[in-house]
Every structure is written in C-alpha cells, then in structure tokens.
Amino acid sequence: MDSEIHAMGGLQTYGEPVLYQYPEEMGYSYICPVQINSRGLMIQGSSIGYPDEPMSEPGFRIDGYDLILRFCETVDDAVEFIGRYNLFFEPAPSNLAVVDANGDAAIIEKTKSTFAIRKTDRRSIFTTSAIAVEKRTRKIQGNTTRTYQFGFKRHQLIENLLLEEEKTPTIEAMQRIMSNHTMPSPVCRHLESLSPYSQLVTLYSFILIPREQVYYFSVIRPGSVYPCEQESTKYSYCFT
Ligand SMILES: [Zn+2]
Fold first, then answer.
1. Which of 42, 60, 125, 201 is deepest in the core (most CB within 10 A)?
2. For the chain, where are the E strands, in sequence order?
3. Where are the domains of the chain?
4. What is the pLDDT of residues 80-115, one digit of tens each?
C-alpha cells in the first residue's frame, strides 16, 4: 500500500504509525518517528549502558535530537555539532545513527560524558542497542555482562547479514535482515523468544530513502502482530 504524507498533525491511535511534523520554527522542519528533517538528515538512536563510567550530569536538560535536526544538514554538521556541545542524551547514553541525503552516514557512540565516531568505507553501517563497538567506548562499557554478550551476538548477526545483502541493497534485502529470527539473539525480537534479562521487543521497523523522500514503515499491532508479519506501508513525504 502506498500513502502520501504532506503534514500530519497530532498522534495516531495504537497500531498506526505515529507521525508528526514539527513546523519550520527555530530551525528546519522534521518528522517523527522517522526523524528526518527537511534537508534530508536522519537521526535514530538506541540505548546503551556504561555502568562504570562516573555520571556527568548536564547543567540543564535539552532535547539533543531536536537540536541536531533543527540546525544540521549533513552528517559532518551533526558530528561537529555534537562535539562542539558534547550533547548529553537523556535518559541514557546512546548509539546514534545519522544519515544524510548524500548517502553519508556515521554512528556516534555516546557515553555519559564523551563520545566516539564510527564511519565506514563499506556500503553499510549500523548500530544496535546495548553495546559499543569503537575501542575506547567499548572499554568504558566493559564486555562481561549478559546484556552485553546478548547484544554482541545480535551485532555479529547483523554484520554477517549485511555482508551478504549490501552488494544488492534492495528494499527486499533490507526487509529480509529486519525479519531475521536467528537465535539466540535475533534481529526481529518476539517476546516469547527473548531471555528474561533482555525483553526489548521489536515495535516497529522502517526503511528510509532520504534522496527519494520515501520510507517503508511497519508497526506492531494488537495481538502481538510483529512488523515482520505484516506488509510494510510505503510513504512519501514532502515538507511544506
Ligand atoms: Zn519477527
């Protein structure tokens, strides 16, 4: 199914994509939850733990995603912006993925008080929740907890899947990756297949094509109908 979106005001009901367009005030406009701005910059994040790093409380709390989307156009802009202000992301340190309309991409592994940047020469780059990959941030995080080991297996799985699929990165190829259920730490997470200590299920999945202003979106439905069990809806968008 294809849909056209120009501006969505307010939130939709459970089972529908939650879409909102922030108006062009105090910076570029952007939409949520895909979180892409009118210049084609996209940002997504996942939480991560750094248990032994001393907490560095911010002087005041800010919405880092909002600031990046309001004032940055490219991945380089975003990286420079985060470095300049050492943005503190609440409620937890995060792995952030930023992608721009030119196809540039970076992963920012944000700890409580510092950050590291990952880039790649390959055609794909990715991040997951729970683990850091860059040498310095991984050292801060440590690698001995069950949560880390669980997350690292998932990271390895995605890396292997991407090595196969990135040669022909079609929509179908990306959907295959997001619908992978290889145990013990599958890409697509259903509650009944998860360990008691890590029960984060897959609530939604999407594929974004910034240059074409198109994305494919699938969200969990009542009765635990996971995104992998549905056909994605294709949306196109424009900023007015
Ligand atoms: Zn699934």
1. 42
2. 2-5, 20-22, 30-32, 36-37, 42-47, 94-99, 105-110, 115-118, 204-209, 214-219, 233-237
3. 2-141+201-237, 143-200
4. 998 888 776 555 678 899 999 998 999 999 887 788
pTM: 0.85
CB burial of residue 96 (10 Å; 0-12, 13-18, 19+) = buried
Q: What separation in Å is there between the alpha carbon of 203 and the centre of ligand 1? A: 10
Q: Ligand 1 centroid to 78 CA: how many Å?
A: 32
Q: Ligand 1 centre from 225 Cα, in Å?
A: 9
User: Which residues sit opposite 207 in a β-bridge?
Assistant: 216
For the structural domain made of 2-141+201-237, what CATH number should be given?
A: 3.60.20
